[in-house]
Write a structure and sequence with these properties.
alpha/beta, binds magnesium ion, binds guanosine-5'-diphosphate, 12% strand, elongated
Length: 331
């Protein structure tokens, strides 16, 4: 009996120690360069090494005259930074032209990345009446968290914000949104579990109007294992919102930056089902591979509008292509 007790206590202590030791550490979004400039362009593997210090590596590649090998290494470097093969090829082609006419390679890469990321990156909300923002994406990407942070951001701009949850399937979903509404000082449109998502959306518009809100942000379901019914449900919620309000100003797709190319493939079903107007790229604090922003923009054809950098209320930034490209390449 006592022996069994001692064994259990020892196991518990070992378990606790392992838990503390093995816990992943958070990484900064774009860490300072760890210069190993002439690391060889290794073959791509399923889990490519993190690319850190893109700028330092670009400068190292072009330390001498630009050779064919240097251009191939630049393309490989961009791909390993998650830029995506197609965008990497385009960027290298443009940079070659610029360098041929005397530009600095790192500057030219920064400029081309900014161009690739350009377009309309602003959130468009109505100044005069209720704006509706619908938020879609796979479960776990950070929809609810981003909605909380966005509500806080809009609140700081003096807007009255209502939040509604049209994922009535999960009871916990509404509770989580309620916690974020409290933190952000937003108004939560309550609904009962199991209600029809379209009906919830309709009631939410009425409630937000009655309350005099400037913005209504609608959280949605993201269960992928029932893919087709989910897309039908989202399309229906959007139609109901359009009917109840004047329009849906923004359909934001939330994408987890740490999922790389897989996340982009998954996101495609959403861009096909509901016309996505902007991307919120979350967990940029969890990846050193900022190039994913370029791949997302290039492969989904939708501008990145928001960047999530953590789990706190103010860890959301409006996306600024030029500042981002500079930060990526100067690192
Ligand atoms: N590090 C980090 N974690 C995030 C970020 N956004 C969301 N998360 C975390 O991702 C997890 C899933 O978020 P949640 O909002 O519930 O995702 P949802 O299922 O899409 O609504 C939670 O643990 C969040 O705290 C971010 O920008 N950075
Ligand atoms: Mg959620």
């Amino acid at each position: 009996m006592t022996v069994a007790l001692i064994v259990i206590v020892v196991l518990l202590v070992v378990g606790a120690v392992l838990f503390v030791v093995a816990r992943p550490k958070r990484r900064p979004a774009l860490p300072a360069p760890k210069a190993s400039p002439d690391a060889p362009a290794v073959a791509r593997t399923a889990a490519p090494p993190r690319v850190e210090g893109l700028g330092a590596r670009i400068r190292a590649i072009f330390a001498g005259a630009p050779t064919e090998d240097a251009w191939a290494r630049l393309e490989d470097l961009l791909i390993r930074a998650d830029v995506g093969p197609k965008a990497a090829e385009d960027i290298v082609r443009q940079v070659r032209d610029k360098v041929a006419s005397g530009a600095d390679p790192a500057d030219a890469v920064a400029q081309e990345v900014a161009v690739a990321l350009g377009g309309d990156t602003e959130l468009h909300l109505r100044p005069d009446e209720l704006s509706v923002v619908m938020v879609v994406g796979v479960n776990g990407t950070g929809k609810t968290t981003t909605i909380g942070k966005l509500a806080a951001m809009l609140g700081r701009q003096g807007k009255k914000v209502s939040l509604a949850n049209s994922d009535t399937f999960r009871a916990a979903a509404s509770e989580q949104l309620g916690v974020w509404a409290d933190r952000a000082g937003a108004h939560l449109v309550a609904q009962s579990r199991g209600a029809d998502p379209g009906a919830v959306a309709y009631d939410a518009v009425q409630a937000a109007r009655a309350r005099g809100s400037d913005v209504l942000i609608v959280d949605t379901a993201g269960r992928l294992h029932t893919r087709q019914p989910l897309m039908d449900e989202l399309a229906k919620v959007k139609r109901v919102l359009e009917k109840a309000a004047t329009d849906v100003e923004e359909v934001l797709l939330v994408l987890d930056a740490t999922t790389g190319q897989n996340g982009i493939q998954q996101a495609r079903v959403f861009t096909d089902a509901v016309q996505v107007t902007g991307i919120a790229l979350t967990k940029m604090d969890g990846t050193a591979k900022g190039g994913i922003v370029v791949a997302v923009r290039d492969e989904l054809g939708v501008p990145v509008k928001l960047i999530g950098t953590g789990e706190r209320l103010d860890d959301l930034e409006p996306f600024d292509p030029k500042a981002f490209a500079d930060r990526l390449v100067r690192a």
